[in-house]
Amino acid sequence: MSSIKIECVLPENCRCGESPVWEEASNSLLFVDIPAKRVCRWNSLSKQVQRVIVDAPVSSVALRQSGGYVATIGTKFCALNWEDQSVVVLAEVDQDKKNNRFNDGKVDPAGRYFAGTMAEGTDPAVLERHQGALYSLFPDHHVKKYFDQVDISNGLDWSLDHKIFYYIDSLSYSVDAFDYDLQTGQISKRRSVYKLEKDEHIPDGMCIDAEGKLWVACYNGGRVIRIDPVTGKRLQTVKLPVEKTTSCCFGGKDYSEMYVTCGRDGIDPQGLLKQPEAGGVFKITGLGVKGLAPYPYAG
């Protein structure tokens, strides 16, 4: 086994850092700070960070084939032009639910932008339940709604053969799978492939590696876990020096590095003394496995 190294590469003090995504073209990591309404781009070579502030909580960011990015801002799917920091709304959801906002999102292998919603709440324990839904924004900008009754729509990714869609509704404490039709974007046959254990706490963001195994960031668990979605077994646990680990992605020149975001909201001053790097961006090397390049939104 190679030795695993964990380092805080960016002490960003995110209130709730989320949605890390690697942009190969600029050797950069993109991520968001949801309540700070901030999209960040950290250049891994220059170590410089650029930030764009938007007008509502921004919960995910993704690459866009035609240039620039897409992001979920409030309850809107948006296009983000980095150069002039302009935002164009592509579609809006949950207009009947004033307290809702988008949460995690990711682009599928056909270029559709999947993202789900939740009721805005400061603490998962006192959240208004079953207010969210899962959507995708197709390249022609029409929106498809898959299902509702979601608590906290979270991690998502697709199997290597694109035939399975993996999804997390955090408060179900489960990683679920659906049969996936890449041509149509249809999903069916929901089932649980992994149930979280007590010490793993709340499943949050997720990504897949080049061996088809899933990595799940455990909120309040201070760790990412590697699971086999076929056997339902946990294969590996990597603990971080912060408790509110939120999401993970692979990056670096050959996608052999893992980047992990986390938050500091909800940690008292005593807690912050114990975990001064809370809200930072972490890099994990030596995992011995690679990830995949993210798919860009095709619209």
Structural overview:
The strands form 6 sheets. This protein has a 4-stranded antiparallel sheet with strand order 1-24-23-22, with no helix packed on it. The protein starts with a strand and ends in a 14-residue tail after the last strand. With 299 residues, it is mainly beta. It contains 1 helix and 24 strands. It has a single domain (5-285), classed as Neuraminidase (6 Propeller). It is globular, with a radius of gyration of 17 Å. A hairpin with a 4-residue loop joins strand 2 (17-23) and strand 3. Monomer. This is Regucalcin. It is an enzyme of class 3 (hydrolase). InterPro entries: 6-blade_b-propeller_TolB-like, Regucalcin, SGL, SMP-30. Pathway: Cofactor biosynthesis; L-ascorbate biosynthesis via UDP-alpha-D-glucuronate pathway; L-ascorbate from UDP-alpha-D-glucuronate: step 3/4.
Q: Short description, anyone?
A:
The protein is mostly beta strands and 299 residues long. Helices cover 2% and strands 53% of the residues. The chain has one domain (5-285): 6 Propeller (Neuraminidase).
